[in-house]
Amino acid sequence: MGRTVRLRVTAKERVADDVVALTLADPTGDRLPDWTPGAHLDLVLPTGLTRQYSLCGDRFDPSRYRVGVLREPDGRGGSAYVHDELRVGDEVGVGGPRNHFPLVPSQRYLFLAGGIGITPLLPMVHQADLLGADWTLVYGGRRRGSMAFLGELAGYGDRVHVVPQDEQGLLDLPHWLGTPRPGTRVYCCGPGPLLDAVGAACASWPAHSLRTERFVAREQPAPARSTPFDVRLARSGTTVTVAPDRSVLEVVREAGVDVLSSCRQGTCGTCGTDVLEGLPDHRDSILDDAEREAGDCMYICVSRARSDHLVLDL
Amino acid sequence: MTTTAPAPPPVSDADPFGPEVLEDPLPFHAALREAGPVVRLSRYGVYAMGRYAEVHAALRDWQGFESGAGVGLSNFRTEAPWRPPSLLLEADPPRHDAPRRVLVDLLSPRALRRLRERWTAAAEDLVDRLLAEGDEFDAVPALAEAYPLRVFPDAVGVSPEGRENLLPYGEFLFNAFGPHNDLVAEGAPRLPELSAWVNAQCQRDSLADGGFGAGIWAAADRGEITHEQAPLVVRSLLSAGVDTTVHGLAATLHAFATHPDQWRRLRARPELVRVAFDEAVRWASPVQTFFRTATTDVRVGGTVIPHGEKILMFLAAANRDPRRWDDPDRFDLSRDPSGHVGFGFGIHHCVGQHVARLEAECLLTALAARVEAIEVAGATRRLHNNTLRAWGSLPVRVRPAR
């Protein structure tokens, strides 16, 4: 569950074409909450938009966070605000950090980054190196000038493979993933088509070899039911009906129950709610198959019900 | 900003692990707080902190105060640990991350909800049987030990045979964080046998399906920790999950037996049960101390703790620091005990605290529903331990509710 604090922008620098890195610190100089590689923050912008950005700074420095923000022309305006309006000295609301993409222990890692997907992988790379793991980063982007943090990665030598599309074409996934390598953990972050291709290429790998993070929601099949369902809110003692065209989150909020939410597309995890009874129809991009099977938690901004009623811990 | 040259800290030759202090640590804690934010304990060549602000800050500052060199007096950089170090308590980021995350998930309030019904029934059954036998009993074995030993090993999935080894193993472990005094020597002869039993319980085949232990192995199967790490993570549950809760419950029962007004208040408002347990943990601090090791020259309150030096953090002294708490020696259910450091703080904040709270809630709720008054009914006896503030015997008389 998220709590929002105000942090100050203490630096803003261009780190690639269309990418700025923001440095954030507590205005009073306090320690910031600890985080682990793969974690993200929610930035609550003055426009009312909330956006998730992976932490890509140094976890050993408790005084500042760093995030990288790509300008997304077809986005909902969050990145444009960060690029065009947000200035050093401004304060922004920050939720988190939360981590749905943790680095698990391994002797060997293959990191696959597409474009701005480098951001969660950057601290992972630092950490894998610190721990003396055998690791490789394959980093694709449209062109060299659009790829952030190349300078920071240069020191790792030939562990890092930089693949600008205009020079070398798309990432050669059959080369990197064609032969399953048991014991190697594959971490991938980037655009949906890259994640889908990597997922397909890893199908013959041992279970749990691949870990991904999506910034954009996964394509979902149609909801399991097209009829209304009831949701009983155990703590507030009310029952509401969710029509097919409404989200559980909207209906619960209308009933006067406060639930924090953020992305409204099942990617950030802010609205995670405990399920006490009933079968959820999971439509988020966070839970893995085992967690879906367990059925004891759901993201009510997008997830719905399979059963006629759900009981939620709200 | 002005900087002044660091001053040497005040020096104390008191022995915080000696029998006088272990019998009644409060005067020593008060003297420690008064002496300064950092004190040098000449007897052991270590630094100490007793004030809330500095202890709290140091617990958060894992960068400056590491756990990986051991959280006892022994420095793992120069001395061999008596057992393979804990992957949680005696580890730092980044290696600490994955085992911690597995236990955070397994022991979250959400994950524990499935236990509440069973643990409530077990508490009611235990209290009913006890009251049927009479209205005087020793609350340490009859409640504080009996209840956790009944529910917790089941929840982990440990076999019924040999559970009597858990308490003496934990007692040794917590003594071993201190100096090699008589308390350690007395426990040493049984150690090989106790360790062998505990280590055997950590293996996959020893652990029942559906328990925390099996959950840890399942996390290893999913790659969240390695299979080599799994038994050591199970060991953390068996090491840190029994004695601490036993003495937390004993402290809570002692607090109520000596504060009848607070027991009446709990009976009138049973929803105070969670505040009651945390207030008892603040007031008694079942875990009194842990060490850290300076990773660099760390400046604290006008003095400098040099790189590589051990720092003894008195959680118990911080929990009664009048700079932080009003009337700190009072056990008071109207207080908000939030922020106490009885479970530690920061990245090593007790990962089993929700388990302890649920055990306490179930037992105290069952007791409060059935017992109108509880009082001390004989000579109490402390159990000395280098880390724990423990009761050996707590005879009580109860008046059953009509």
Detailed description of the structure:
By secondary structure, chain A is of the alpha/beta class. Chain A has helices spanning 78-84, 118-130, 150-154, 165-168, 173-177, 192-201, 248-254, 289-294, and strands at residues 4-16, 19-25, 40-44, 50-54, 65-70, 91-98, 108-114, 134-141, 160-164, 184-189, 210-213, 229-233, 238-242, 272-277, 280-281, 297-299, 304-305, 309-312. In chain A, a hairpin with a 4-residue loop joins β12 (229-233) and β13. Chain A is globular, with a radius of gyration of 20 Å. Chain B is an alpha+beta fold and 402 residues long. Chain B has one domain: Cytochrome P450 (Cytochrome p450, Orthogonal Bundle), CATH 1.10.630.10. Chain B is built from 17 helices and 13 strands. In chain B, the strands form four sheets. Chain B has a six-stranded mixed β-sheet. Chain B has a three-stranded antiparallel β-sheet with strand order 5-13-10. The radius of gyration of chain B is 21 Å and the shape is globular. The termini of chain B are far apart. Chains A and B meet through loops of A and α4 of B.
Task: Provide a compact summary of the structure.
The complex is a heterodimer of chains A (314) and B (402). With 314 residues, chain A is an alpha/beta fold.
Order of helices and strands of chain B: EHHEEHEHHHEHHHHHHHHHEEEEHHEEEE
Biggest β-sheet description of chain A:
6 strands, antiparallel
Number of strand elements of chain A: 18
- CATH topology value of the largest domain in chain A: Rossmann fold
Q: In total, how many domains does the architecture of chain A comprise?
A: 3
Rg of chain A (CA only): 20 Å
Ends distance of chain B: 66 Å
| Low confidence ranges of chain B | none
- Described by its quaternary structure, the protein is heterodimer
Q: What structural class should be given to the helix and strand makeup of chain A? A: alpha/beta
Mean pLDDT of chain B: 96
Largest sheet of chain B: 6 strands, mixed
Considering the protein shown, what is the CATH homologous superfamily of the largest domain in chain A?
Nucleotide-binding domain of ferredoxin-NADP reductase (FNR) module
Shape of chain A from CA axes? Answer: globular
Low-pLDDT runs of chain A: none
What is the CA-CA span between the terminal residues of chain A?
Answer: 12 Å
* Residue fraction in strands of chain A: 25-35%
